[in-house]
TrEMBL record:
This is DUF2493 domain-containing protein. It comes from the Bacteria. It comes from Streptomyces cacaoi.
Length: 103
């Protein structure tokens, strides 16, 4: 048994929050520490969006690996930046749906 549970950072479009919550629950019940996108019930300002985007990169730093929640293969602009960041920092990346072709 490892000294500590695996830490997984979930990334994905906030349009898929239901799917992200399901993945979060499943991983948590499997004994994984999950860090996930922040949620807001109301519209956020551009400044708040920039803050949340920067905070999510720090969550990637904390993780052992990154899991992209991408129903139908969808990868948005923010998630693409997070994938690039994770790759640049050497984090293993996996996808819930087939990974899009590299461009």
């Amino acid at each position: 048994m490892p000294d500590r549970p695996e830490i997984v950072c979930i990334c994905g479009s906030t349009r898929f929050m239901d799917e992200i919550r399901t993945v979060n629950r499943d991983l948590t019940l499997a004994g994984v520490i999950v860090v996930a996108p922040g949620e807001a019930d109301e519209l956020i300002t551009d400044k708040q969006k920039k803050t949340l985007d920067a905070l999510h990169l720090r969550k990637i730093d904390l993780a052992d690996r990154v899991l992209i929640v991408n129903p139908g293969g969808y990868i948005g602009e923010s998630t693409s930046r997070e994938i690039d960041y994770a790759r640049a920092t050497g984090k293993p990346i996996s996808f819930t749906d087939p990974a899009p072709a590299a461009t």
